[in-house]
Design goal:
It is a single chain. With 310 residues, the protein is an all-alpha fold. Helix content is 68%, strand content 1%. It contains 12 helices and 2 strands, in the order ααααααααββαααα. A two-stranded antiparallel sheet has the order 1-2. Strand 1 and strand 2 form a beta hairpin. The longest helix has 34 residues. 41% of the residues are buried.
Length: 310
């Protein structure tokens, strides 16, 4: 269903059909069809854009470059130093022994900047891009409600979060399998698990990383409602992401660090401990939920009062 068809379906919802007024059940069903049609349309438009494909291409290239760099550096039989308590160094030291660790390393490498930047671009353009292109007013001609449209935009952005994370993980897994051996996985705690269980842990980590981006998605959507310029919204969102990352590294602001959405991002490394340390992971999920609630509500309030017809 195209946007025009979705708008037409929504028109039937609020008005009367040729055979008379719709029943309450028919109205709910038509609204559901309109919502699903708009969601499919948004997904299709988002993932057909060259910008989106370019972002996914960059994300897929990062694990390949990391894998090649590790392979070259260890080609003489040497090993990469590491083993710190942070996710990246602890994982990268294990890549030569097990290519599955390239998945963890790639996620640790892309999460601080590449992944949130990509999400910021998609979320920042969600409303502002429609406004600058002149298509937002046509979407709102259909009496579907601004709330439903905003939720569809957010759901599309969250879908991109999941797809982008899986692209990184899949690219890393394929590269790791080609360049390095696969086998039993040694956890950060020193215990060992089978490759199958390690693969499940990798999938769980990818899901946690995707969920870690819902706060960024809500922030970008809110910024997108503040302007009619897609470029300005994307630039502002990415700028805020960089600023928060910098502030999170300033020791004098340690009291504020736990309240930054990026502070617990690398807590996913605790999923590779035995037993799993859940404390920081739960704090991360709670913080993402808080940011999603606050900025999602702010986006709803702003979009509801936004004049898009002028």
């Amino acid at each position: 269903m195209s946007r025009a068809e979705a708008a037409g379906a929504a028109g039937v919802v609020e008005g009367e059909s040729a055979s008379g007024p719709p029943s309450a059940g028919g109205t709910r069903e038509t609204r559901r069809i309109w919502t699903l049609g708009l969601f499919r349309s948004e997904l299709g438009i988002t993932f057909r854009r060259w910008r989106t494909l370019a972002l996914l291409g960059v994300l897929a290239a990062v694990p390949i470059l990391v894998g090649i760099a590790v392979k070259i550096e260890t080609s003489d039989g040497s090993t990469i130093g590491g083993g710190g308590d942070e996710g990246g160094p602890a994982f990268i030291a294990q890549i030569t022994n097990n290519g599955l660790f390239l998945v963890f390393t790639a996620l640790a490498a892309t999460l601080p900047f590449f992944l949130p930047m990509a999400i910021g671009v998609i979320a920042g353009d969600a409303i502002a891009g429609e406004a600058s292109a002149g298509t937002l007013r046509y979407l709102l001609v259909a009496p579907a409600g601004r709330t439903r449209l905003l939720l569809v935009k957010y759901a599309t952005t969250l879908t991109f979060c999941l797809v982008a994370t899986l692209v990184v993980a899949t690219s890393a897994l394929a590269t790791g399998a080609l360049l390095f051996p696969l086998g039993e996985v040694t956890t950060i705690s020193g215990t060992r698990m089978g490759f199958g269980e390690g693969l499940l842990r990798a999938l769980l980590i990818a899901l946690v990383v995707a969920v870690s981006l819902i706060g960024v998605a809500a922030l970008g959507l809110f910024v997108s409602t503040l302007t009619s310029s897609g470029i300005a919204a994307m630039a502002t969102t990415v700028g805020l992401l960089i600023t928060v990352q910098i502030l999170d590294q300033i020791p004098q602001l340690h009291a504020l660090h736990p309240y930054f959405f990026s502070h617990y991002w690398l807590s996913f490394a605790d999923l590779m401990r035995e037993p799993i340390y859940w404390d920081d992971i739960i704090k991360n999920l709670q913080m993402q939920g808080l940011y999603a609630a606050v900025f999602g509500s702010a986006a709803w309030a702003r979009f509801g009062a936004k004049d898009v017809m002028a």
